[in-house]
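Hi there,

I know you've been waiting on this one. I reran it after we fixed the sequence typo, so this is the corrected version. Both the input and the resulting structure follow.
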Amino acid sequence: MLTLRRAAVAVALACALPTAALAAPASATLRVEGADATLIPELRQPSDTTLVADRLGPVRTVEGPTALGQLIRAGVRRNVSVRTSFSTAFGPDPLVAVERIGPDDQGENFEGPAFWVFKVNHASAPVAANQLALKDGDEVLWYFTSNFSAAELDMTVPRANLRTGRTFTVSVRAWDAEGVASPASGAVVRYGSVEKTAGRDGRVRFTARTGTRSIRATRTDAATGAHDIRSATKEICGLPPGATTCPRPRPNGASLRLVVNGVSTKGWARTLPRLRAVLAGALADDDRAAIAWRGRVWRGSGPVGNVARNLVRRFG
């Protein structure tokens, strides 16, 4: 079996393979899973020719709808930083290394605790991100891992709203590097505050609870402690008797925090007045501001102002 360092070199060598000619702009989905949290939740992110800042040199133009261009554009859109470096060590055509996304850094020479890897349509990518041309409908997943045999977990959940008290089934699949799926036996599925473990068929059953609640699957090898790639977080709505729309709970203390110039508040009741103050112009361009909600963090007066506006409109 390859060591992690040898595996990293093998990935780099695989990136030297030629690719097909780049196509027209493409609209594909993207998700980025960091070490401890989702850095960019699943979203549809178009990709086209993109300017990319190279840590080792000037800004470069990456032609066509590539996986790298899509990642850079999504990072700007979601205020998640991306650090890259380009190399001609394997030939005249530069190859890219994505070194850091958000807080998770693999290091400039693979010396970090884990590495950034990506898959397209559930299969490991055969070329570098700046060489892989995307097509409409492609699904791209970036993940930070020290386990090169990590499987990608994927859930099937009910699409329609459910009446409170009704039972429903969640099916969890595990996709290997070749893009082959199998039932994710042993996956832990968390629905709201309830956790259940999938059987051999990869299925678990829950009882719908009132309101919109998140659901996600994870799996850890009990013998080695190696983690598979967590599934995307989805939501299931439980409708109370007589309701036609799903009630959405306000942000709670565990998921909402606002920090401005070192002063922090948590929870909806305490944070709402400060959010309204932000909208009233109390936040200056040079203020040090950050807001965290549902596992994501925004920094800077502009992004914080936008999030504050959306939260107040939605819940205020």
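Quick highlight: The radius of gyration is 21 Å.

Best,
R. S.
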